[in-house]
Specification:
single chain, 346 residues, alpha+beta, binds 2-oxoglutaric acid, binds fe (ii) ion, EC 1.14.20.7, 2-oxoglutarate oxygenase/decarboxylase (ethylene-forming) activity, metal-binding
Length: 346
């Protein structure tokens, strides 16, 4: 476990100096070719995705099929939820639930352990919607089980659950594209994402004064994501992505596009071929900022072991195999206060 932990908090990525992250803007890829039945079109999308994910680790994706009106309605429902009284939101506090669902209050997340304070945000966590008699849930697995839902606003549940289904489907398409881009059969990942550890974080970053970053006024501190990849939508600018020169490149929302970024698990799975890039959020927009970060993790029981097309005689596997569930839970422990307090109670 100790080694795993050391590998997961990879903020001091000196190794990145030798990598390819020499970008000044985020590339764009239209993934419509993954949705039709044309294998050549799908292969072209896969190649373009892989190129972006090998060099930058972040990519704007269009042609995904989700209407803009759905995204607007989702941000609207989030805004109505986060303005509810603190005491009401506290009813579903993740610290009480002690599993990965519910309301994460201010002070609940600390993504960059090198920086002073907690991140300036509140959030709501959703995952794969499973029945109350799910055996993993009954066995106490913190990643699986039914979602919890606030009663107010009434539209929160239908709107967020429809968004979750939408990005989950887009994520499954992206796995096809990534497989093709890596020279694997399109369905390579399908049996490793049968009961995936998907996480949707609906996040609210309050307005903050346009002052210098002092480590205490940052929406989410510098970090890389730990799952396979993230599908991100944001209502305002504020996201910044770090290139190898240490410059922060702005990644504002583009109409009709999701931002996709590779996470540490996929970097590991691909032996470092796809890169998990450090990023942060500072909300200097002068407005409330809402974002939806959907993290696609593999099945709890899946083994993350160097892919066959990402190794060779001159490129042996760099990382030992790891169970996806161990990977995710150790990362959650490092970043969320609710897991730290959970451990302290034991
Ligand atoms: O809100 C955003 O734009 C990014 C959030 C993020 O990086 C995360 O939650 O991991
Ligand atoms: Fe992130």
């Amino acid at each position: 476990m100790h080694d795993l932990q050391a590998n997961t908090r990879n903020l001091d990525r000196h190794d990145q100096a030798a990598r390819r992250l020499d970008f000044s803007e985020i590339p764009q890829v239209d993934i419509a070719g993954l949705r039709g039945g044309d294998p050549a079109a799908a292969a072209a999308v896969g190649a373009a995705l892989a190129e972006a994910m090998e060099t930058v680790g972040f990519v704007y994706v269009t042609g995904h099929g989700m209407p803009g009106s759905q995204l607007d309605a989702t941000f609207e429902a989030m805004a109505r939820y986060f303005e509810r009284p603190e005491a009401e939101k506290a009813g579903l506090d993740i610290h009480k639930l002690a599993r990965h669902r519910g309301y994460v209050p201010f002070e609940g997340l600390h993504a960059d352990p090198h920086e002073g304070g907690a991140d300036l945000q509140e959030a709501f966590e959703l995952g794969l919607e499973l029945p109350a008699d799910d055996p993993d849930y009954l066995a106490g697995n913190m990643m699986y089980g039914p979602n919890v839902w606030p009663e107010r606003p009434a539209e929160f549940r239908p709107v967020l659950s429809s968004y979750l289904d939408g990005v989950h489907a887009i994520g499954r398409l992206l796995f096809h594209g990534i497989a093709l881009g890596l020279g694997l059969p399109k369905d390579w990942f399908d049996d490793k994402i049968g009961k995936p550890m998907i996480q949707l974080r609906a996040i609210h970053y309050p307005q903050q004064p346009p002052r210098e970053v002092d480590g205490r006024h940052i929406g989410i501190g510098a970090h890389s994501d730990y799952e396979c990849f993230t599908i991100l939508a944001a209502s305002q600018p504020g996201l910044q992505v770090r290139n190898r020169r240490g410059e922060w490149i702005d990644a504002p929302p583009l109409p009709g596009a999701f931002i996709i970024n590779i996470g540490d698990c996929m970097e590991r799975w691909t032996n470092g071929r796809l890169v998990s890039t450090v990023h942060r959020v500072i909300n200097r927009s002068g407005a409330e900022r809402y974002s939806l970060a959907f993290f696609f993790g593999a099945d709890y029981e899946a083994t993350i072991e160097c892919l066959p097309t990402c190794q060779g005689p001159d490129n042996p596997p760099k990382y030992p195999p790891v169970k996806a569930g161990d990977w995710t839970t150790s990362n959650i422990k490092a970043a969320y206060t609710y897991r730290a307090s959970e451990d302290a109670r034991r």
